[in-house]
C-alpha cells in the first residue's frame, strides 16, 4: 500500500517532485549484485588497506584553512584548489583545469577580490561508458580554537577512542570530496577497470553562496560537461547516526545583511552614551522583529508562499527512522522547539526557517570594552522551500526591515540587502541513480537506505539538474551528529571508509543500469 502511495505521489505531482518520501527504496532493476561481487571482493579490501594513506591525504587537505567567507584567507582557498589539482594529477586524471570565476561581487570589502577557482578534471573518456560528474566543495566554514574546539580545527586529529577524524571540513566537505579521489586510487591499485568516465567539479565558494558557479555550469554544459549522464553530490549527512540514507531534497538559502550606520567612528560610551542614537540598539530591535523564540517567522507574506502539507505527505513522515532523542543528542541539549518526529522533520525539511547568525562590527570579545560601534551589520538567513520565490522573498524581507527601522524614529541609517541566494531542490528518488545507490548501500551496509530530505542547502544542485538535463543524487558520507559548521566537526572513520566503498559500488551499479 505504501508503495502505491509513493508511486501516486510521483505520478500526480507531474513536473513537481514529491514533497517528501520516507520509505526505503524499491529496487526493481536488472542490476545484479552477484555479477559485481567479484569486483567488490577486490575493491573493498583495497580500500581498507589504503586507509592510512586516505587519512593522510585528508590530513593534508584539512591543514589548509580554506575559509571562503573570510576575505583574508582567500589565498588559502586557492592553495587548497592547487593541492587538489596536484592530487588529481598524480592519480592520472587528465584535462585538469582551474577555472577562474572573476572578482567577487558586492557586498565585499576588497572589490578586487578574485573568486577561488573551480577544479575541473576527467578520469577516463571511453565513449562506451557512462559519464558521471561528481561535485564537491573544498572551502569550509570558519573555525577558531576559542570557539570551543577540543583541538586545533585546522589539524586533523585521529581520535582513537571514538574512532573519528576531527577537524574543520572532515565531514563538510573535504572528507567526502577526497573520497572520490580515493575511489579512483583503490581501483587503480586493485587493478579494476573504472566503471564510468568521471568528471570532477570541485568549487571553493559553496559555503558562501557558490558565487560564479552557475554561470560556469551554463557555459560548460555544452563544453567540458558535454555528455554527462548523471551528477552525484556527497555533501550532506545521514539523518541520524546509524542508518545510511539517500537524499532527494534540499532547502534553499537566502542570506541577508541589515546594516545600521550612525557616527563616523566607534565612540567612547562614557562621552557619547545617552546623547547619540546607537546603531547597535537600533539593529537589535530590527533583528528581534524577524523571528520569535518559537521559531515563527514574523515577516508578513512568507507563510502564503509555502506549499501546503497534504494528508498523504503527513503519512510519509511516520515511516522515518528518527526520534527527539537523536535530535537532542546531535544538538547536545534539550532545546528542541518540537517534540513529535513529524513536527521536527517537517520543520527541518519542508517549512522555511529564519536564523540570526551574528553581527559584524560589534564588540564580541572577552573583557568589557566600553564602545559604541559606529556601524553594525546583522547577518541572517532564511532557509527556503517549495514554492517560495527568491525575488519576492527578498522584497518582503527588505520592506519588513525598513518598516521596523522606520518605527524606531532613529536618525541613523538602515540598509537591508541580499548577500546570496541558493535554490531549494526536490527530486524523484526512484530513478536509475537512486536505485544504483540503494543497491550499493545494501552491499556496503547490509541495509536499505532511508530516503530523506536535507534541511541544509547546496545552492548549485538545481543548476546541475537544469543546465545538464540530468538527474542529481545526493549520497551522504557522514552522520547527523558530525557537527558540520559547529565545533569539533568530525567524520567517523567507518563512515569515511565505508563511504568510499559506497561511492565505488554506486558507480559500478550505475554503470550497469539500463537507463540513464
Ligand atoms: C549541506 C552543505 N554541506 C552545507 O553546509 N551547505 C551550506 C551552504 C550555504 C551557505 N550559505 C548558503 N548556503 C549550508 O547549508 O549552510
Ligand atoms: Zn557546509
Ligand atoms: Zn557542504
From TrEMBL:
Key words, A-Z: Dipeptidase, Hydrolase, Manganese, Metal-binding, Metalloprotease, Phosphoprotein, Protease
Domain Peptidase M20 dimerisation: 248-405
Location of the active site: 139, 206
Site entry: Important for catalytic activity: 268
Origin: domain of life: Eukaryota
SUPFAM superfamilies for the chain: Zn-dependent exopeptidases
Family: Belongs to the peptidase M20A family.
Name of the protein in question: Cys-Gly metallodipeptidase DUG1
Amino acid at each position: 500500500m505504501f508503495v502505491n502511495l509513493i508511486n501516486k505521489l510521483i505520478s500526480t505531482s507531474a513536473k513537481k517532485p514529491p514533497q517528501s518520501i520516507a520509505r526505503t527504496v524499491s529496487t526493481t532493476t536488472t542490476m545484479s549484485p552477484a555479477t559485481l561481487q567479484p569486483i567488490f571482493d577486490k575493491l573493498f579490501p583495497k580500500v581498507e588497506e589504503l586507509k592510512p594513506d586516505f587519512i593522510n591525504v585528508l590530513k593534508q587537505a584539512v591543514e589548509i584553512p580554506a575559509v571562503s567567507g573570510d576575505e583574508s584567507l582567500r589565498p588559502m582557498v586557492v592553495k587548497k584548489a592547487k593541492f587538489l589539482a596536484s592530487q588529481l594529477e598524480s592519480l592520472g586524471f587528465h584535462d585538469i583545469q582551474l577555472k577562474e570565476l572573476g572578482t567577487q561581487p558586492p557586498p565585499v570589502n576588497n572589490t578586487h577580490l578574485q573568486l577561488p577557482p573551480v577544479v575541473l578534471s576527467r578520469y577516463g573518456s571511453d565513449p562506451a561508458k557512462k559519464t558521471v560528474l561528481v561535485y564537491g566543495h573544498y572551502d569550509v566554514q570558519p573555525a577558531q580554537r576559542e570557539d570551543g574546539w577540543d583541538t586545533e580545527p585546522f589539524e586533523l586529529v585521529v581520535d582513537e577512542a571514538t574512532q573519528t577524524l576531527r577537524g574543520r571540513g572532515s565531514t563538510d566537505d573535504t572528507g567526502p570530496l577526497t573520497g572520490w579521489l580515493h575511489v579512483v586510487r583503490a581501483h587503480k591499485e586493485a587493478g579494476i577497470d573504472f566503471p564510468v568516465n568521471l568528471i570532477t567539479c570541485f568549487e571553493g565558494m559553496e559555503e558562501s553562496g557558490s558565487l560564479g558557479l552557475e554561470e560556469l555550469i551554463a557555459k560548460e554544459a555544452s563544453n567540458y560537461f558535454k555528455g554527462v549522464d548523471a551528477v552525484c553530490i556527497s555533501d550532506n549527512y545521514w539523518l541520524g547516526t546509524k542508518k545510511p540514507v539517500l537524499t532527494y531534497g534540499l532547502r534553499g538559502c537566502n542570506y541577508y545583511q541589515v546594516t545600521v550606520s550612525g557616527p563616523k567612528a566607534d565612540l567612547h560610551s562614557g562621552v557619547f552614551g545617552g546623547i547619540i542614537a546607537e546603531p547597535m540598539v537600533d539593529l537589535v530591535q530590527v533583528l528581534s522583529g524577524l523571528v520569535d523564540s518559537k521559531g515563527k517567522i514574523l515577516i508578513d507574506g512568507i507563510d502564503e508562499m509555502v506549499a501546503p502539507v497534504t494528508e498523504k505527505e503527513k503519512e510519509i513522515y511516520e515511516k522515518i527512522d528518527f526520534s527527539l532523542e537523536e535530535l537532542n543528542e546531535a544538538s547536545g541539549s534539550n532545546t528542541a522547539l518540537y517534540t513529535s518526529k513529524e513536527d521536527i522533520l517537517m520543520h527541518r525539511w519542508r517549512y522555511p526557517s529564519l536564523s540570526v547568525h551574528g553581527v559584524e562590527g560589534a564588540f564580541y570579545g572577552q573583557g568589557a570594552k566600553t564602545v559604541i560601534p559606529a556601524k553594525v551589520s546583522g547577518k541572517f538567513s532564511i532557509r527556503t522551500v517549495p514554492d517560495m520565490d527568491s525575488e519576492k522573498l527578498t522584497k518582503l524581507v527588505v520592506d519588513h526591515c525598513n518598516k521596523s527601522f522606520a518605527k524606531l524614529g532613529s536618525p541613523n541609517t538602515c540598509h537591508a540587502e541580499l548577500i546570496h541566494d541558493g535554490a531549494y531542490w526536490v527530486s524523484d528518488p526512484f530513478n536509475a541513480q537512486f536505485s544504483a545507490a540503494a543497491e550499493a548501500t545494501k552491499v556496503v551496509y547490509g541495509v536499505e537506505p532511508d530516503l530523506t530530505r536535507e534541511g541544509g542547502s547546496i545552492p548549485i544542485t538545481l543548476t546541475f539538474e537544469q543546465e545538464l538535463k540530468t538527474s542529481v543524487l545526493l549520497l551522504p558520507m557522514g552522520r547527523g551528529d558530525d557537527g558540520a559548521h559547529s565545533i569539533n566537526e568530525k567524520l567517523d572513520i567507518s563512515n569515511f571508509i565505508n563511504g568510499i566503498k559506497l561511492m565505488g559500488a554506486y558507480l559500478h551499479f550505475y554503470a550497469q543500469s539500463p537507463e540513464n
